[in-house]
């Protein structure tokens, strides 16, 4: 899928170059604009006959450039260059939305009129856009160490300087400006060709905020990308059939396995784990793409999550107490039905309803694309802007490790949401085919307006603990109640 993203990004840059070069043939349709002395931007001036055509070309060129940057898979230390190129695309779009009032150099009467806001905005956008694209060319050329890219960069810079000198001299501005735009278009095509022949980038290891080591107290952290983040022991946990996962192990004694809800991370359970670690071996983990776990190449499924829980459980004859939250309660219930001899106790915190709605027809296809999309600059930018505030809004707490500011986590959360209906359908079939074992079950809920928690407690012959004053996110607001239910 990542190779296809490279192709899509390359196509977007080629489209941006072609649309940005509409003036090559279009200049012959507007003889009022002097091809030697007039700016190319004058073709889109408000008083010219083909203004809409050239303005639409500029807007679409800017959008194509933005789309190309958004689709490029993220590579470490290249972000300043791609950010500058995105700024160029945005400023090109702005220049198309706000045209010149008239042909500034070709029309002698243009300078006598009072300039409108659109006229001033267009000029400012063009100047800043030129600065942005030159910055992008220099920054990316430095990272790529490419002679071809540097050659185009210096030619573009030279054409820009000649344009400025020609404007000061009052002669030849049109020729110099057209040379500058030609070099920019050729460089965009070069970027596209470079993407088409580029190797797939290695996924960057998860980053963690200073002072946060992936666990608390005597926790052992196991992760595939961070050999030195644990204070006691580190390594790789390869979950059978499910790939490698970030796992935090804390304490000693009977095993307690905690699985977080939709888009949850290990640190959401710090308070619960701290209360249990005194007499239990508490195991927490991040599902693929979430927390500090790498992405998986396939969408999540109910049976895949059951296999993950089975791989993280202690070997027979030991049994595990399983604590699950939200949608993960489906995984836990399926685990209990498929592996009854592995389970000592089940604690379901705010279980989600397995409704009767049919799976989304596009969920599988979208789920296969999401891991690759999560590694793009577009997903990274969206996650940086929306992830931390959304996490604080939904949970009422900060993101101490910065994981919700990554495109990987954003894509994984979207993948889990898309997979919900398919998992619910699988769980309904499993309920009809496989009996629930005779194990102690506790269902904990706060508000239960739809009666889902109460109904599930009745179906599983479970103890139903209601905490009406605790609000949502009981793992954060009532950790002692959750810990008590597991002992």
From TrEMBL:
Gene3D superfamilies given in the database record: alpha/beta hydrolase
Transmembrane segments: 50-72, 79-100, 120-140, 152-173, 179-197
Keyword flag Signal: no
InterPro entries from the UniProt entry: AB_hydrolase_fold, DUF998
Record keywords: Membrane, Transmembrane, Transmembrane helix
Any Pfam family matching the protein: DUF998
Protein name per Swiss-Prot or TrEMBL: Alpha/beta hydrolase
Organism the protein comes from: Nonomuraea rubra
